[in-house]
Design a protein that fits this description.
alpha+beta; Zf-C2H2_ZNF451_1st; disordered N terminus; 13 helices; Znf_C2H2_type; 13 strands; zinc-finger; 10% strand
């Protein structure tokens, strides 16, 4: 009897598949996935596609914004460069107009100052990439600027400085008075000794003393006397504008540069060549002190607004009048102040100076004194200084006598009071009262 396992094996071997026709290729496949599985797969594909699309759109938006920002900044830089070039052209045109209408008395320098002032204002420079790029300079530019002198940009100020730091300090102080004769005083002052009788200058005091001694001992003293004192010459003044210079050669250079070979305060003497005026020490100090009392204002050249500080001026020209310039004007000029020190004549008996011909004539008629008339500005300043020193010494002596008189009177009263306190009659009255 055979086992069941053997029966199954025999049946398996007997099975045979027989095709009824020719073999054909498989054209269709059976989808083993269910409908639910197909829907889940398609939804995941759609979600992934949407995420990729959104990320791509976000990236494109960021790139568009960056590109727009870069284009906008580029346009702004181009506009700034264009505005700067237009501003520079207008400033040069303004300066050229000033030069065209200026007279030959030095106004052309003021127009140059105006142009230089605005070309040096902080702002975008050609070739720069930012607002502060133009402020940076190369080492060559700095060395070139260090060797050049710097003039104050305020018109009529006229002060010149050796470096930018000094100019910056001057601008912050806002001291732009045109009525200042000392703006060119630098270095050591001159030291000459002038004879008040003849006006000659000597290098040393000993030379002056020998000169006076020889004149006194001669047959014709010509007004020289041993009780006279010298006048120390410390600087020289331009005869046209009366700016002061320590050296005579510096004054001559100024007169040549400004064409100041004329006299603003002409005297009676007619001279061929105009020369620097020697200034005594007392006249120099008095002139500077009187000029400091003169007030001044700084105004805008376009709207005439008064500017009270350097910060206010910067804000005004940066915002309001961008094509204007600062102009300083004083209530009085140096020449007008010098008129108060220019002695037309003097009376040696009264120790008085006279500033006009009318004063001289009035003094002659009232006192019948002889008044000496000064033929030149140099002699006029010399005699003003001499008479002023005499007046000062007389006033000091008068004060001393007054103080001595007061002390003497006070001492007398003290002595009289002491004597009255010690008198017998007063002692008797005091005793009876007790």
């Amino acid at each position: 009897m055979s086992s069941p396992t053997q029966g199954h094996d025999s049946e398996a071997e007997e099975v045979e598949f027989v095709s009824e026709g020719t073999l054909r290729p498989v054209l269709d496949c059976i989808d083993l996935l269910s409908d639910s599985d197909e829907e889940g797969c398609s939804s995941r594909a759609v979600t992934l596609e949407d995420s990729v699309t959104r990320n791509k759109a976000r990236v494109m938006s960021t790139l568009d914004r960056l590109a727009h920002k870069v284009a906008q900044e580029k346009k702004e830089r181009a506009d700034k460069c264009k505005a700067f070039k237009e501003k520079q052209i207008m400033q040069k045109a303004h300066g050229q107009r000033e030069l065209a209408v200026s007279s030959p008395n030095g106004r052309n320098q003021e127009a140059k100052h105006c142009v230089d002032m605005w070309l040096k204002m902080p702002g975008l420079k050609p070739g720069g990439i930012g607002a502060d790029w133009g402020r940076r300079q190369s080492a060559a530019d700095l060395s070139r600027n260090a060797s050049a002198r710097h003039t104050c940009p305020v018109i009529n100020c006229g002060r010149v400085f050796d470096n930018i730091s000094l100019l910056g300090g001057h601008l912050k102080r806002f001291d732009h008075s045109p009525c200042d004769p000392s703006i060119h005083l630098s270095g050591s002052p001159s030291e000459l000794f002038a004879c008040v009788a003849c006006g000659r200058h000597f290098q040393t005091k000993e030379e002056w003393r020998k000169h006076v001694q020889s004149k006194v001992n001669s047959a014709n003293a010509s007004g020289h006397s041993l009780d006279q004192n010298y006048q120390q010459i410390v600087c020289f003044a331009c005869p046209a504008c009366f700016l002061l210079f320590n050296l005579r050669d510096e004054c001559l250079q100024h007169m040549s540069a400004k064409n100041h070979f004329r006299e603003s305060l002409a005297m009676d003497e007619t001279r061929g060549a105009v020369q620097p005026v020697p200034v005594p020490k007392l006249v120099k100090n008095r002139l500077i002190a009187l000029c400091k009392e003169s007030t001044f204002t700084v105004r805008c050249s376009l709207c005439l607004k008064v500017l009270i500080s350097h910060q206010a001026a910067q804000a005004h020209f940066n915002v309001q009048c961008r094509h204007g310039c600062a102009v300083a004007k004083a209530d009085t000029t140096i020449v007008e102040v010098m008129k108060q020190l220019l002695a037309r004549g003097q009376c040696s008996l009264c120790s008085k100076v006279f500033l006009s011909q009318a004063e001289i004539q009035s003094h002659k008629e009232s006192t019948q004194h002889n008044v000496d008339v000064n033929p030149s500005m140099a002699e006029a300043l010399l005699q003003f200084s001499r008479i002023s020193e005499i007046q000062q010494s007389t006033a000091v002596a008068r004060e001393k006598r007054l103080l001595q008189g007061l002390e003497t009177s006070l001492q007398r009263r003290t002595d009289d009071r002491g004597e009255s306190d010690g008198s017998p009659a007063k002692r008797q009255r005091l005793a009876s009262g007790l």
